[in-house]
From TrEMBL:
One of its GO terms (biological process) is phosphoenolpyruvate-dependent sugar phosphotransferase system. GO terms for cellular component: plasma membrane. It holds the Pfam family PTS_IIB. NCBIfam families: FRU (TIGR00829), PTS_IIC_fructo (TIGR01427). PROSITE patterns: PTS_EIIB_TYPE_2 (PS51099), PTS_EIIC_TYPE_2 (PS51104). Residues 128-462 form the PTS EIIC type-2 domain. This is PTS fructose transporter subunit IIBC. It is found in: Cell inner membrane. It is a multi-pass membrane protein. Residues 2-99 form the PTS EIIB type-2 domain.
Length: 468
């Protein structure tokens, strides 16, 4: 019996990581292959592969949309692809190992031929997106913790004043508010640091975080009232990452090589990134960023509805894919800047595809096969906790009908939420965020979700035919 080891990992580490692992396991059982799967999700590494399991395997499958350490698999046949292929093509990936069509991984070797390097670069899918999502995946926990603590402090410990809700000085709620602010303070440096680390490995981490800290503090570049925010963090991350990666290619004497990753590369990169922000790009990026936030804050009427339509459509289009992540990251960044009215409609749109398709299976059971009815129950549960990927089984089977239905419902719900001024203090969606007190305008939040899921369910059932 063939033996395979695998790793699955997605940027958020919540759903796709485990869906890919589950589908790989099912495919391996079907093909009579023994497989051990290590998941690298938001909770960290689970089912970590042992040296014996790796050495005894006939090949390795890596389905990941974030950076994975592959040095353990040097010399092994490897199939490397995005996490979506692990969900949709598990049998094909395993069959490549069985048929001997996987190329041998030589990334752990000290020397790599130009042809191998060129092919490796070609095989990488959208590296900019991969690096960006790596930073976002590490930033999100800080946004969640900070947003929830600030929301709890204001909701429970705050008192109305002429200038808005204020937390009494010296109270326990002021301390909780301060802890939330502290969590927010780490967001941009973490974003920049892990973008840089994704590009240049560990030598990029310190310069990226330092650059991110400078980007988030306008006093460094003569703009104390206006900082470069998450745009500056992204710029700092990519600048630090690619600069560190370039310095790694320098030919240096053997005596210097041991201190290159811990001293020379971080030091030189940090100096250049800091100088670039302080003297060149910090103030312009801060101007662009503040112009963007002011424009979003001033959106009223038709323009805000148009924005909600776009965000709702993006969230539902690929249900956790790259388009979805761009809209999600935009909303998360706005939360970090104190504009929670963008994340409100996004939080509504996030849960509508799975809730809508779950409702559709309950309303018209003759249109769905047995496995789809079971998937409908799971989709309702996943939608409740804000996992858009719960609608993927339906979209994978019937994309031309399900995806438009999902988009119609998500766009409708997002518009209702935007018009009602629904806000969300954390970068997550679904009813669960309201349970934790993170939502402003709870009633309309649920009204928007219900309207959206009804639109999705009715549209899907209208487009689908009864099972023969």
């Amino acid at each position: 019996m063939k033996k395979i080891v695998a790793i699955t990992s997605c940027p958020n580490g919540i759903a796709h990581t485990y869906m890919a692992a589950e589908n790989l396991q099912k495919a391996a059982d079907k093909l009579g292959v023994e497989i051990r799967i290590e998941t690298q999700g938001s909770i960290g590494v689970e089912n970590e592969l042992t040296e014996d399991e790796i050495s005894g395997a006939d090949g390795v499958i890596i389905t990941a949309d974030k950076t994975v350490d592959k040095t353990r698999f040097d010399g092994m046949p490897m199939v490397e692809t995005g996490v979506q292929d692990g969900i949709r093509k598990p049998e094909e990936l395993i069959q490549r190992i069985i048929d001997g069509n996987a190329e041998t991984f030589t990334g752990g070797s000290s020397v790599k031929s130009a042809g191998e390097h060129k092919k490796e670069m070609k095989d990488k899918q959208n590296p900019v997106y991969r690096h960006l999502m790596n930073g976002v995946s590490y930033m999100i926990p800080f946004v969640v913790v900070g947003g929830l603590l600030i929301a709890l402090a204001l909701a429970i410990g705050g008192t109305p004043t002429e200038d808005g809700i204020a937390v009494p000085e010296g109270s326990i709620w002021e301390q909780i508010l301060n802890v939330g602010d502290a969590a927010f303070m780490f967001m941009v440096p973490i974003l920049a640091g892990f973008i840089a680390m994704s590009i240049a490995d560990r030598p990029g981490l310190a310069p990226g975080m330092i650059g991110g800290y400078i980007a988030a503090n306008g006093a460094f570049y003569g703009s104390p009232e206006a900082e470069a925010g998450f745009l500056g963090g992204i710029a700092a991350g990519f600048l630090a990452g690619y600069l560190a990666k370039w310095i790694k290619t320098w030919k240096v004497p053997a005596l210097i090589q041991p201190i290159m990753p811990i001293l020379v590369i971080p030091l030189l990169t940090s100096i250049v990134v800091a100088a670039a922000f302080i003297f060149v790009i910090g103030a312009p990026i801060a101007g662009i960023f503040n112009g963007l936030t002011d424009w979003l804050s001033s959106m009223q009427g038709a323009s805000s509805i148009f924005l909600a339509l776009i965000l709702g459509a993006m969230i539902a289009f690929d249900m956790g894919g790259p388009v979805n992540k761009v809209a999600f990251m935009f909303g998360a960044a706005m939360v970090a800047e104190g504009n929670v009215e963008i994340m409100g409609p996004i939080a509504v749109a996030i849960c509508i595809p799975p809730l809508g398709m779950g409702l559709a299976t309950l309303l018209a059971r003759r249109k769905y096969e047995g496995p789809e009815k079971e998937a409908g129950k799971a989709a309702l549960a996943m939608g409740t906790v804000g996992i858009t990927e719960g609608a993927i089984p339906f979209a994978a089977k019937d994309p031309l009908r399900v995806i438009p239905a999902n988009m119609a419902g998500a766009m409708t719900g997002a518009v209702v939420a935007m018009m009602a001024g629904v806000g969300n203090n954390v970068p997550h969606g679904g009813p669960v965020v309201a349970v934790f007190g993170a939502v402003n305008g709870v009633v309309m939040f649920f009204v928007a979700i219900i309207i959206g899921m009804i639109v999705t369910a009715l549209t899907a059932n209208l487009l689908k035919k009864n099972i023969q």
